[in-house]
Design a protein that fits this description.
2 domains; OB fold (Dihydrolipoamide Acetyltransferase, E2P); 19% strand; single chain; 5 helices; alpha+beta
Amino acid sequence: MDGFTAFVEGIEQWAWIGWLVLIAVFLVVEMLTLDFTFLMLSLGGVAGLVTDLVGLPLWAQVIIAAAGAAAFILFLRPPLLHRLRRGEDPAKSNVDALIELRGTALQDITQISGQVKLSNGDTWTARALDGVPIPQGARVAVSEIHGATAIVRPVAE
């Protein structure tokens, strides 16, 4: 028996330790990321461990582990993520909450300058969306936010 064959047989004999280490590493990374990706990879590692305990060759173990991990990522992870995020607050926040918010022009709003008081009580520097000036007192709606400037458009009451 040559050295390479002995080396491969040694790896196949102790592959179960490699699978356990791989599973443990993936689980630790999963605890840090909480994204279910590494959990699915660790489940693929469990499939590889089971095939090793059954006695399949190392190349078959790797293929089955990779196929199992891919199947778990494609078919098990999406419903788990959906269930996890089902209880999230659907309310928009930060800049997303300002889009379509109504307000009143505190001064004439042009492409260069302006100021608007939004219905949430905030006062913002404003610019006209399409370049058409908006007179003071007109009702507006926020179309976009660029930095600390609200891009607004006139709205009918």
